[in-house]
Give the backbone structure.
Amino acid sequence: MGSESKAIVGSVIVSIGTIVAAVGSTPSNYLNSSVRDDLTLIGNVLQAEGNAIDAEAKGSVLRAVGKEITASGNLTVITGLVFDIGKEASYKLFIAGNLLQALGLGVNTGETIDTTPFPGQSETIVGGITQIIGNTLQAIGWSEAFFEIREDVNKQKEVGYYEDYIKKSNEPSESESLVATGSWIQAIGSVISVIGAVKEGTQAN
């Protein structure tokens, strides 16, 4: 697989992963907490794989480092979902994971801005900034969720990460809304980044 193809394939896989994770983060009467957790896990696994593939594409060392940092953020979120370490510890990992993703995207976006103009550059920059905003909102949402369960230790007995957010009125809490909104913003940004990668790859060929 050529360098341009790796960049495109990696970006597409990341985009699919962000969309799957966004569906998992969205309050729904049709998906229970367990299914939503599974979608979030699958989405982050796809994102980690996509970023790993994209990191192998031709480019600067800084670009590869940024992709690896972003992938490590996905792996951090995955750790919080997979291992039975308690909700407080899991939420801390979700916060750290989203901040790592934002950091990696920041490195890549900065590197792209400082690069000689190329086809798809504007889409890559806009997509990166959009994803940074999305990850930051998710980190804020998980932070609020962390303090919510600290205030009510009985919530730790409930099953499923998202179930903690649902109030007795069945309305999503502010923290869940922030996570869901951030997830969809990240998904939109990833789609824009795919457009940039396709434009760059097509021109290179």
Observations:
- Residues 165-169 have pLDDT under 50 and may be disordered.
- The longest helix spans residues 121-151.
